[in-house]
Amino acid sequence: MVPRIDALTREVVDLIAAVVARYHEEYEEAAAKHALTGAQAKVLALLAREPLPMRRIAQLLKCEPSNVTGIVDRLEARGLVERRPDPDDRRIKLAAATAAGLDTAGRLSESLDFAREPLAGLSAEERGVLRDLLRRMLGTGA
Amino acid sequence: MVPRIDALTREVVDLIAAVVARYHEEYEEAAAKHALTGAQAKVLALLAREPLPMRRIAQLLKCEPSNVTGIVDRLEARGLVERRPDPDDRRIKLAAATAAGLDTAGRLSESLDFAREPLAGLSAEERGVLRDLLRRMLGTGA
DNA sequence: CTCGATATTTCATGTTGTCAAGCAACCGGG
DNA sequence: CCCGGTTGCTTGACAACATGAAATATCGAG
Question: Which of A8, A108, B17, B68 is 20 to 30 Å from B88 at the Cα level?
């Protein structure tokens, strides 16, 4: 039998759940401000950094490639993203942010206030401690 | 020039994003183990604590009541949840977990390993520090 | 009793997600 | 070269989730 979770761990898990809920809420809200869904905002943010093959987007989003087709379709229909051929492999289609897409992505990341808001109450030193703890939490992955 | 968000805060935000992504992944996975979707698991977990009016579920899920109708429909079709009349107000329908629902909810929460896995690497003292930092992050949002 | 507010459902619609099937293009061994 | 297997993407059918508007039933105040 698995040992029971102690009260402290339980509380930390609940706090993490609260952080997750709040992060999501703010992310969707920020995306909606630009008439984007969460998934669309995520893809646009990825493509604002560099063009990516459809397959790669699916890997990063942990979903099926056929799903990415639809999301990119909608972004493309709004002129935020375009599909380009890959010069080295004609099977591959590179999704890339257009100028309008880059602009939207920029304004989107500015309105992601999750950064400033909840972390504002912590000192630089405390943020450093938090960073180290989160790093170690994520470090040993499965 | 002073960046809008310093590098340390940026990194903490990225780490939080990673935690959020991982939390979701594991939550969906745990739900899928019991043939539930994430939304269904969430509602079932709520109802395992106490019966709730449809409207209240919608508030807790931050979605429209009409959406809850469908989710509860699916849970009810599988015998995990039932709708009861509210003795005090005949407009209200109380969604309540059945015995089977309570059983599933119990096994579900056991398989939510997010607790043990990533936190296992931290000492009790470190978990205490993490708890305090998260509390303050969520506290007032000031 | 009547009127407005509340609780839920139904319907239409759109987005996200899966899976299976299909097509085009790459790549290896003959 | 060509052939067969693999890879990358799209299409189609379908389910779940989400919203908004409209319908129904009930409550509560005047």
Answer: B68
